[in-house]
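Bench log. Compound arrived from synthesis this morning; before running ITC I wanted a structural hypothesis for how S-adenosylmethionine sits in the protein. Inputs:
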Amino acid sequence: MVFYRPAASFPCCRVSHNMRLLDLLRKATESLEAAGIEDALPDAEMLVFHAVGMDRLEAYVSNPEVKSPDAARATRLIRRRAHGEPVQYVIGHIEFLGLTINVGKGVLIPRPETELLVEEAIRTARNMKAGIRPRAFRDPLSILDLCTGSGCIALALAKEIPEAEVYGSDVSKEALPYARKNAKINGIANARFLQGSLFEPFRGRKFDIITANPPYVRRDELDSLQREIRDWEPLSAIDGGEDGMDYYCQILSSAGEYLNPDGCIFLELGYDQAGAVQKLAQEQGFEDAAVINDYAGIGRILKARKTRRPLEYIPVM
Ligand SMILES: C[S@@+](CC[C@H](N)C(=O)[O-])C[C@H]1O[C@@H](n2cnc3c(N)ncnc32)[C@H](O)[C@@H]1O
């Protein structure tokens, strides 16, 4: 857990005349350290270099004199970070699988482990496309991303599988404008975003792939989250109920209705939820419910397949 000193106590990043970029960086780093920010240097680098519009290598090699509007911009960004605001909110965007994803208050910052979910879903989608799993009468591939937030999962899938129809939904009014804007800035036309709770906007529809990174933190763990997350990211994106399982139960109990036969669901999992969610999927009649580990060896993704519908009995007249 990260502790922050009260915001008023950190020294301001003072900028003198003729200051060079690396001097400004040093002062910015000191300001963040004084405010109790853990990763002061990398955060200062991101903010200062962003303020002057230079990449890291260029900045270290050229070390130019800082123009005063740039210095003023850097000081404003550093001040926001020193107050505890996540660096991604201050900069306003983050890279996710080669996409630029705009983020800000009201929308969860995409995490690196979520990229794994997308990669697994892409692999399955390509196999479906290649016909390894028969998909009679199901063209184009249809994908639904529940709890879409910034739209990062839906957009990464839409970009990789341009012939697919991708839908994202979220209950949050604040999140959806980010998802739609992110589609626009990344030039993605095959993704649509609808507001509503879980499957509610898609009654009667069927999909080949469903993905979700739902809120999954146990309620009694919310207080021990980093203050950065607790105070800045939306609680509705994190709170998974008493045991963290609320959304997995709701999603898995309805997903069968919204999947085509042989369709697959991919769920991101909390660090200790793999066994319980896998069991839930099996109880709901999913086949091949498998847990995929992340690079730290933690069961991070559940992949499960909807049983192929048994042939209908047609009475002989
Ligand atoms: C953990 S965030 C995931 C955001 C994004 N998919 C990602 O991976 O970065 C969970 C999201 O679920 C949304 N959410 C919470 N309750 C919901 C509900 N009942 N129906 C749909 N979305 C919901 C939140 O607004 C939030 O955007």
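What the model suggests: Residues 255 and 265 are 8 Å apart (CA to CA). Residues 106-306 form a domain with the Rossmann fold fold (CATH 3.40.50.150).
ITC booked for Thursday regardless.
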